[in-house]
Amino acid sequence: xxxxxxxxxxxxxxxxxxxxxxxxxxxxxxxxxxxxxxxxxxxxxxxxxxxxxxxxxxxxxxxxxxxxxxxxxxxxxxxxxxxxxxxxxxxxxxxxxxxxxxxxxxxxx
Length: 109
Prior knowledge:
Strand order of the largest sheet: 1-2-3-4
Number of domains: 1
Low-confidence stretches: 1-5
Mean pLDDT: 83
Radius of gyration: 14 Å
Number of helices: 4
Shape: globular
Largest sheet: 4 strands, antiparallel
Strand content: 15-25%
Distance between the termini: 28 Å
């Protein structure tokens, strides 16, 4: 698989590292519109995720190499938190939407 066709982040690795509960809660944060993407650089994705407070998230990596940091207390205790999951899901959703729009546009022209 070429590097360009690999997913930005491997969702199964994220699910395994975050755990079932944190992963489900992260998906709920994303579905609830609580993730604001602040920037997507070649490596880090910067986001703010609403929770009990607004948390700052930096998600890094490519494919199976997923890591990041979050300002929430759970990150300090557990490492990979629901806010990192929510940011990942938002990025993947945005990439999927962009891909669908590009496919639709090319089919029309």
